[in-house]
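Entry:
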Amino acid sequence: MDVVADMRGPHPGAGPPSRRRTARDRALSLLYEAEAKDVEPAELLGELPVEPDPFAVTLVRGVGEHRQRIDAIIASRSIGWGLERMPVVDRNLLRIGVYELLEEPEVPTAVVISEAVELAKTYSTEESGRFVNGVLARVAEDVRRPPGPERGPVAPSTPSAPG
């Protein structure tokens, strides 16, 4: 059962979603379900009768394997919003987006952010699109900026919790 399906609305003015958008949608649903059931994402994947699209599996496994680091990055870039205060959908969209920014360099930054924003607008609160855009844009500035002569190579910092 698709947990997020009940929240799903039509994609106004859009043709059929791309394979990757559908995979992101499914990954969001699976991460939402794992959180609701309080199980690890890999455990949930192992319980499925049919394995989802390989990209959805990559996203779900990647978020699960790197969640501590991803959550620390989100917490340090979401000023005034602790992870526990965020809507579950926003929190999991940010996890997917941060994972892609860190671990899927072939996916353009603009695509990562716009896909997350569109899913936030579809499944979450009125303000979620702007919130997700702002957090992911700050993360992208840190982890995907091209190295310059004065900056040197980019290495993700170890973020501290907002103060």
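The domain at 18-143 is CATH 1.10.940.10 (N-utilizing Substance Protein B Homolog; Chain A).
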